[in-house]
Here is the input.
Amino acid sequence: MVAAGEVVYPSAAEGVSEFVETYVVGRARDDSRRAAMVDAATELDDVARDWEGAAFADLPADDRDRLLRELGVDAADPVPDGTLSERLRFHVVNELLYAFYASPTGGRLAGIENPIGHPGGAESYRRATMDGPETTDSGGERDG
Amino acid sequence: MDRTPVDDADVCIVGAGPAGGLVAHRLAESGATVVVLEAGPRFDGDRREQLEQHIRPGLGGPWEMGGPRDAFSSSGESFYPLNAARVKGVGGSTLHWQGMVMRLHERDFELDSRHGVGADWPIGYDDLQPYYAAAEREFGVAGAADNPYAPPRDEPYPLPAFRPSHSDSIFAEACERLGIDMHSVGNARNSEPYDDRSPCVGYGTCKPVCPSGAKYTAESHVEKAEAAGARVIDRARVRRLEHDEAGERVVAAAYTTPDGETHRQEATQFVLACGGVENVRLLLLSDSDRYPDGLANSSGVVGRYFMDHLFAGAGGRLDRPTRQNHVGFNTSECHQFYDEADPVNGLKLEFLNYAGPSPVIDALHADTWGDDLLDQLDESYGTHVSMGALVEQLPREDNYVGLDRETTDDLGDPVPEIHWSVDEQTEAALSRANEIQARVLDELGVEDRWTVGPDETGPAYHHMGTTRMGDDPESSVVDAECRAHDLDNLWISGSSVFPTGGAMNPTLTIAALSLRLAESLRAELG
Here is the structure.
């Protein structure tokens, strides 16, 4: 998953290995979800060995990216029990993307420190910038 | 789980949404033996499961709607997406609602008298005012008395309003120049801890799921009802109400449980609280020799006058950050144009805090990743603004909920048929909303504009009007106490009793009427 994360996450992402281990693999709330992720990653590894002669994690990043695209994972619908590319989209690529962009880690790179799916408090919506102060109220008093 | 009937029940309530939950709680608290039959399941467990189901493609809907149980037909000019518009389960449609709560205006209760359109309610705003206040306390409404267009109120909201968003401050510049007033909006969502529920923590997915519990759901009152002794039977699909020989009283509700068994729940009083579509369906499925057109339908209007609110919207992009999609609710509205006479349909304007795409949802649907994806997200997120509006649809007899006897659900019962269209008068009101929205967006200099108007509009998923309330048994289904004209012990709770729907989100009015009904029913029980 870390090797896939290095491809799926933008180059600006830092600490990919720790993030994946903590928030992607560690996030799975039940064993079946974690097992499905491991199974999909194992299948990807098998394909890499067949097609490229090396484990997925041992391939250069560009080759990992190309392999996923050649498998059609970029265009595939995410389906938990679908075809190989659909399963890879669901259990590998979208597991990685969900954990990343539903957190401030990925959200901040896209311009939002409190993305949907993240319980980042009920104050950020009032700020004009990610790290600025809350906007001054305009209009009437709202003292209830 | 034991899903057999309760012995010696005083009250049988069909439906465990807000209408049923509030009545169940009030009556159970007063010592009545209450049983609630709910067609859907209890959604226990970690609500982050539903959060993920909402955000991630490939997991199905969070509330399991749309299977054979929920089959329906749509036969009108406008397709009605019924299963997007309701939830079956303990909590009902408050499981997926957004939680916007405001009172109807005084004029909404007397549209016929004032303007010669629609119908008058048999009660006025004054009658409902104390129940509105009680409903706000039950829900824990966050709001402020800063709305000069709101009907009179005697007490503050239970919780302080959510403060305006950064996006609101952008709109405020333009609105001030145009003389358009912005004010707070009532939210059934905790701005502070209330009723043992968390304050909002900003998951941003209010509709369809609030994982923190800050948004009110009727699960709250169902739990309180159970704590007060009520029995709630989930996955109990009521298929028929049976009446006595004289046709004066309902004697039992026949329901089927997941094991295929059918049971009869007897009770002294019956309350229908399963929404503006299923209330009708159950009455029509309960036809008999005495009532060949369906129960409580001697007027012939059960199912007629189906109404929804229509959405009008407009938006686009600015050349600066607008900070959208942090929260899933709105913090400002404008009710300035609500009471206008031309067009007479009520309309309210909303300033959205969730305009444009959310990066995580875009990412999960994208056909790329890595730096390419981030470039796309940079382009798609950050500068959107939009306004929404709800527009009133006046009651028309030819908009109706009926039975499609050619199509059956998985139990073999005819499915509901929704026959719905949007009339020209409503379209004119939608255009009026678009006109005001365009003035604001012009003033702001919004580009890349889009509009949702009469041609693109859709329903707001508020099912109203199908068992209308009135004094005349010839032209209405229930009386001012929400009791059926035809049967002494049958009560109907919910928006199906609304003679007109205004343009305000209906759930606070559903709650107020439910509390009022509970009081009348409690008196009846003695």
In short: Chain B is about 25% helix and 15% strand.
